Fold these 3 entries.
Entry 1:
Amino acid sequence: MQINLTGKNAMVCGSTKGIGNSIAMLYAKLGANVTLVARNGALLERIIRDLDTSMGQKHDFIAADFSKPEELKEKVLQKVHEPKVYHILVNNTGGPPAGLAIDAELHEYVAAFTNHLLCNQVLTQALMDGMRASGYGRIINIISTSVKVPLKGLGVSNTIRGAVGNWAKTLANELGPYGITVNNVLPGATATDRLKQIIEGKATKQNHSIDEVNKEMTDEIPLGRFASPEETAYAAAFLASEYAAYITGINLPVDGGRTPCL
């Protein structure tokens, strides 16, 4: 199979670093016109220059804060009204801080719910009509393996990721008749800044070295290593392609086999 996204417009959130950045880079390399979405406008301006344009792709960006869904909605609708039809939406944003669910303050749950589920809803509503009219729609949510098995010490994240997973499954049922697919990619331990923060936090709490925590975590992974962000991007590229037209409503772990259930 040769995945070709030429002529497709993709909006990729959280695209200044980590998994989101790898997805944006790969989509551009496969021919898509990419709209980057993140908070840091200056950084977005630099990153957009690194996106592949060898096939005539045209890229742009939206600088938006996901803690302000109404502001995000206004900026996204400006793009849609250019007019610009988006065929692919990648919902992705940084996870909530680590900590026990019982210790979390209410505002932590509200913030996570806003950043993840409410902004996903805003973006999907804004782009859905264009997908339906074009006859091509791919909504891909980058969540977590905690959708299947809650992860220790990530109480707020576990809770909100589960909500997003069920939201996505519901949407898959509702949007299926229009040929729009909705799927979740579930990254495991991936070599990103967030994983580094989690490891450092565990090392401090357990009074262990960074190397010890690294070993503890990789020992839980059958493949014996952390993923690279690019490996998650490959899964997102397949789900965005024509080859995934009959796949919808699924959770796809990219975790090296760590999740202890099917």
Entry 2:
Amino acid sequence: MTTHTANALCLGLIINPLAGVGGPSGLKGSDDTALVRQALEQGADFRADQRASRCLQILQQRFGPLLEVTTCQGVMGERACQAAGITSVALLDIGAEKALDCRPEDTRAAAAQLRDQVDLLLFVGGDGTARDICAEVHEQLPVLGIPSGVKMHSGVFAISPEGAAEVVAAMMSGELVDLREQEVRDIDEAAFREGQVRSVYYGDMLVPQCGHFVQATKQGGREVEELVLDDMAAFLREQMDPDTLYLVGAGTTPRALMNELGLDNSLLGIDAVLDEQLLASDLTGPELEALVAQHRGDVVAVLSITGGQGSLIGRGNQQLTPTVLRRIGRDHLWILATKSKIRELDGRPLLLDSNDLEIDRGWSGYLPVITGYQDQILYPVGTHFEHQDEPEHKV
């Protein structure tokens, strides 16, 4: 992995400095501040900061200025970034200088702020920290945990700080990194100390993972495109909301959804679907602007990419004018592509050319790409200008 082939990443970081303090003392957790103080009196050490630095130092050495970190003041992130030599750091007005002054409320407040500011939220802690972050983030932002707690029953953690660094490095290098829902679970510490295990489910979060290139649908080790498209269409139909207006874009990949719905498709145009019914076909830009202005619910664009070129917006779908795109919003894009088509890009970002520089730059970053049934990857998106030079991430 080398810096010149990497994509800029805006990374959020939250450290629970108390995570793991109770482990060596056999206290079965670190949620109880009184027990944490007891562990410290018995000689326990703070370990979260050091584990964060192990991950951050690897990323700093590999990617340098391409790594942008937004984190909390003091021991909740700032200090670890300084130790790792990361210079591009933005600070939230959250955090404390002393670990014992940090509270779960600080973690939740930081997660709420970072939710709309970063591409990936990296956190250091255990199940209690994961619970606090899940309460604010849910499935709205990819997260990855650096394991540092006593309890880590949730499926949101890397196997080690170094493992977390490898996942982030794979994302920045344009590799195929799967994005999957994983459970957040925690146990009752008081009951656990009495020998009773009570695991409780608190929700799901999206977690990037370095998975296999081809997962469920394959033949002879290669993707079978027709089967992948059928799976993709079945998954999309399950996600559709009757009150949401869907603008199904040009190309054979979105056509699979129209076939699944039993609807006619213009193939090279933009069709409008509401409650699984076709409202209009092959709409022009002005027609789309009028339609989305009248619709009171959400609007979702179902888009594919141009094979080989990687264009997402601006090649074959110029009917999606800046006015229409603003009405849709960055978070309401359903981007469809087979993993074979993504792999052909060789790590190059998907390209935006909306004829509005503010949209192109504002929508750059990392977005989920639907690659099959319940199968997504996180992939970089940028402008044509950024692709020609050095990628630049704008939030």
Entry 3:
Amino acid sequence: MQAQVKTDTWLEGLLREKASPFLLEVLNNPDTFHYQLIYTQINRDKNNTPRFKHYYLHIDRDQYFNPASTVKMPLAFLALEKLNRLGKPDVGPDTPMLTDSAFSGQTSVLTDSTSANGLPSIGHYIKKVFLVSDNDAYNRLYEFIGQQTINERLWQMGYKDFRITRRFVRATEEENRHTNPIRFVQPDGKLIYEQPAAYNTVPFDFSRKQLVGNAHYDRDENYIPSPMDFTTHNNAPLEDLQQLLQSVLFPEQAAPRQRFQLTENDYRLLYQYMSELPSESRFPAYDTSKFFDSYTKFFMLRAGRSPIPDHIRVFNKTGWSYGFLTDIAYIVDFENEVEFMLTGNIYTNKDGVLNDDKYEYEETGYPFFREVGNIIYEYELSRERKFKPNLSRFKMRYE
């Protein structure tokens, strides 16, 4: 059964009214750019309780896009939840976590030169996932949670179309089903808790073929004159990604089954790292010429990569690969007391060839996000609210 495409004429009208010729060209070609957008208005009552109104543009659960690094976001949530479910008070986000290997393709991690104490931990991996979308950090969270737990937990929460089948490293389907043994230790190396290697016995539903483009290069850089097959790749519908972020930002308003089992400290850690900029981090210390302010803040990309204003914070997760760009964002302007969510993606691959590293991110993708973000932000600045939001929950201290 095909999903219904959701479009609100009001949102489309707002964008078209303010759009540059460039944005109009994109909006007029949905079959080329496969763009999808969700704009979420947030209105508070006198008790500061938020209510959400979603507006959609070309939202289609059946339109495949490669979610790329956006799948790192639910893994950050699930990793913290798993720590709580272990029921071991001396194992937390800052506890050193050592990853061993026990199957082909696996690698071990016993140190981390980018952390303050030189040791890896769940909290530090989550920081790297959000600040610069670090792939190895994602792989280590994947291995800690385990492929079966990742998927069964998301399905249990109602995200039936979610599918996370792979690390971001070259590996077979079987290798991705196997995850590493892990040890949590004290700083002096004394063992606190040991987790054995795991194997996912649950089958995935690969019955729906997902073919993209008209040609591609394979892993060995051979040119293949046929579409690229994403049937067994990760899958994450845009609406589900938006809902996942909303449930962590506003857990009290989430349906009970869509709430992660997190502590107040977990929420603070997530809000901190979702919104922190690479220039504000001491561990790791990032090269800000490469990892500039809006490196992972597509909707708030500034002209010439100039800094994001201090009074604006973006709590988000982006992803980019194979010509697909995605951003799931909650944007806050503390000075003007404005908040909203904006989620979107676009496909920028003019020649239709995948895996050739020739995508129009700079020419089309980033300008699309920047202009849509600016239009919605300007609208939010002018939008009347009966009650101003109290945004103190999202004010963080950065390094």
